[in-house]
Amino acid sequence: MAIIEAQEITKVYSLGDIDVNALIGVSLAIEKDEFVAIMGPSGSGKSTFMNILGCLDKPTSGKYFLENIDISDLNRDKLAAIRNKKIGFVFQGFNLLPRTSALENVELPMLYDGISAKERKEKALEALKKVGLEDRGDHHPNQLSGGQQQRVAIARALVNNAPIIFADEPTGNLDTKTSVEIMKILVELNTQSNITIILVTHEDNIAAYSRRIIKFLDGCVISDEIR
Amino acid sequence: MINIPSTFRISFRALKVNKMRSALTMLGIIIGVAAVITMLAVGTGASRKISEQISSIGSNLIMVLPGATTSGGVRMGAGTQSTLTIGDADAIQKECNAVSDVAPVLSGVAQVVYGHQNWSTGITGTTPSMLIVRDWPLASGRSFTDRDVRSATKVCLLGQTVVDGLFGDTDPIGQVVRIKKVPFIVIGVLAIKGQSPHGQDQDDSIYVPVTTAQKKLFGTPFPGMVRIIMVKAKSSEALAPAEKQINDLLRQRHHIGQKQESDFTVRNLTQIMETAEQSAKVMTLLLGAIASISLLVGGIGIMNIMLVSVTERTREIGIRMAVGAKTWDIRLQFIVEAVTLSLIGGIAGIVLGISGSKGLTILTDWSTTVSPVAILLSFGFSGLVGVFFGFYPAYKASLLDPIDALRYE
Question: Which of B17, B318, B327 sits opposite A99 (nearest CB)?
Answer without folding.
Answer: B17
